[in-house]
Amino acid sequence: MSISSAIHAQTATDDIRAKAQRLVSPLVDTRDDRLQVVATFEHQVTGVTVAPDGRIFVNFPRWTEDTPVSVAELMPDGSIRPYPNEDWNSWRNARMSEVSPNDHFVCVQSVVADQRGSLWVVDPAAPNAEKTIKGGPKIVEIDLKSNKVKRSFPIPPEIAGPGSYLNDLRIAPDGKYAYLTDSGSPGGLIVLNIQSGQAWRVLSDDPSTQFDPSVNVMTDGQPLRRPDGRQPLFNADSLALSKDGSTLYWQALTGKTLYRIPTSSIQNPDTASRARPETVATTEPADGLWTGENDEVYLSSIGNDAVKIINPGTAAYGSC
After folding, report:
1. Could you give the CA distance from residue 82 to residue 90 in angstroms, rounded to a whole number?
2. Distance CA 286, CA 257 (A)
């Protein structure tokens, strides 16, 4: 056997072994040995991002607890430090009348590091995913070199109303636009012109951004329910942007349809109302999307505790 043939055979054997391990692991309650524990936290985490230089940032929402830190940098020893400083993280439910919501984190949902030296923080400012705090909804840009807030973009009440819940964010490669999902009521997309600071809603209350009442979200083999027994009905949630920034993907968490739209059709507030979404594929409830190097879209499969992948060009869909 030639060296190249031997290498090919070994690679094929390794692939078969890895696939077998992934199939067997759930049955024997073992973990794929490629997975490594990076950190564990005492509070719920809804956002994780890694900057180009390897720094890791996380955020803790105020859903069921008055968490002591909203945004943090994960340090090499596994500890966390409030980011960018303790003052921005000093808002508390019990002190809400004492701390201004426009320049403090109220209830952060996600953090995203871009390729241009900034960390972006999405603050829907709706503790317990209830009514938004007046003056609180905002997008905050932090300079990763100076570790200081570079700019804060308040999202006005006509864009993020009382029932709004800003969810996820993607930044255009040229740094001119930010795209967000609003999983609150009514569901929709939001476009932010980073240069002017102007924001506008897109596909607000459109079927593509609303929950599907026929879908049951399952976790650990059980239907997801609120403490009072109600089924959570989440609108537009997951979001992904193609590598060249030309196509935006999204879907409702309580849903099973992936949609997309050309970003050029929603970059002008005067013409965005005429934009029409396109159905990409039938999927399943997913709480996160991400775009790979070849524009494949990764989905977090809630019901299967897994990550799945879809090729938007062929709609081929399956497990990683």
Report:
1. 9
2. 10
175 sits in the region (left: phi over 0; alpha: psi -120 to 50; else beta) called left
Select from 76, 243, 239 the least CA-distant residue to 167: 239
- Consecutive H or E run containing 27: helix 3-28
C-alpha 124/C-alpha 105 separation (Å) is: 9
Region label for 69, one of left (φ > 0), alpha (ψ between -120 and 50) or beta (otherwise): beta
Considering only CA atoms, which of 120, 127, 125 is closest in space to residue 104? Answer: 125
CB 69 within 8 A of CB 88: no
Do residues 187 and 124 make contact, with C-beta atoms less than 8 angstroms apart?
no
Query: Cα 47 vs. chain centroid, distance in angstroms?
Result: 7
Phi-psi region of 102 (alpha: psi -120 to 50; beta: other; left: phi over 0): alpha
Task: Write the pLDDT tens digit of every residue in 277-313.
Answer: 999 999 999 999 999 999 999 999 999 999 999 999 8
- Give the Cα separation of 239 and 252 in Å (integer): 9
CA atoms of 293 and 243, how far apart (whole Å): 7
Given a contact cutoff of 8 angstroms between Cβ atoms, the answer to whether 240 and 249 are in contact is: yes
How is residue 71 written in tokens? Answer: 């945004």
Evaluate the CA torsion angle 71, 178, 159, 212 in order and state its sign. Answer: negative
Sequence-separated (6 or more) residues with CB below 8 Å from residue 308 = 283, 284, 286, 298, 299, 301, 317, 318, 319, 320
Using DSSP's 3-state secondary structure scheme, residue 239 falls into strand
Encoded amino acid at 124, one letter: P
20-36 pLDDT, tens digit per residue, is 555 555 555 567 788 88
